[in-house]
């Protein structure tokens, strides 16, 4: 209703009065409806932001009983710069030369004579120096680029665009043929790259990580909303949102247990472990190179393609850590990623943490686990399904459901008790 009229109802006046109470100015002073009422408004808390307000009562731009309103907004906006990061371009890696250089390093003098933390630091320093030497880096600018659209696709795209431009300037038969050929080449190379990206033999998962990368590149959506909140506290800056997640995830952990147990392992030869280079090389070769790496920055592709060149120094590091009882700091850290599980994406409490730990540490843990199971396997009940190879919640449920079905079929002689 036109707030300039004197026949406003009480509710109408409360609505109009709320403008001044909130510090807002109404810029439309003429009717915006064919019946002479002001039903469309433009509000602002700053007089200098809005100018040239025009209600066009003669316009036929749309079929409506409301008139279009034109106005200018004086505000300076800045485009958010996309974060740039450098990554290794593994497609152009010189794996043969990298492996040769790694094999030439006298690791026994670098690792065996040092404490565990220093040995690990020196190992990383030498490894990254050689990796930077033999694997070039590229700059990634956008989070939404298709993961398969690489430099080859871009070169083919530029050739297609140049051929199209020449054809527009001179539509000769030769230029038309060149345009059609470059179009076909661009489509073919894009299709090939997309297939290679989606059907990756290195990732055994049914739905691979690269598939989700492809979905993300087409969705144009950020994984985290612009504004997030926890317990009534709202944050928009990345660091502030990270602190909210850190606060919430910390609350989910219980107090660390303290055990006052005296253990003497100085003469316990039963638990000696042989960190065999061949076994370590085989484990590294079987790594899913598409898995995210941890805080140490060692990519799975480096470990996989240099498996047997790195097996010897890692064997020394594992032995040094095991015998000294000290675990390097990088192996104890994790990159924590929030994964949405339910409810609104704006609520921090609707996320669960996923820890991305060092792939080197996972290999070390795998060896320890295998050796531990060898020594205690005879003590485990056959009904134990957790943390055992080829056993899981699914195998546990199969046995449970089978017992239930048998009891239902023969309820007179068999019964199944459930403790929940």
> What is the end-to-end distance?
63 Å
Overall geometric form: extended
How many extended strands?
10
Order of helices and strands: HEEEEEHHHEHHHEEHHHHHEEHH
Low-pLDDT segments? 1-5
SS-based class: mainly alpha
How are strands sequenced across the largest beta sheet? 1-2
Using only CA atoms, what is the Rg?
Answer: 33 Å
* Helical fraction: 40-55%
- How much of the sequence lies in strands comes to 5-15%
Mean pLDDT: 84
Task: Please work out how many helical segments DSSP would assign.
Answer: 14
**Major sheet: size, sense and barrel closure?**
2 strands, antiparallel
Concise description?
The chain is mainly alpha-helical. Helices cover 45% and strands 10% of the residues. Strands 1-2 form a two-stranded antiparallel sheet.
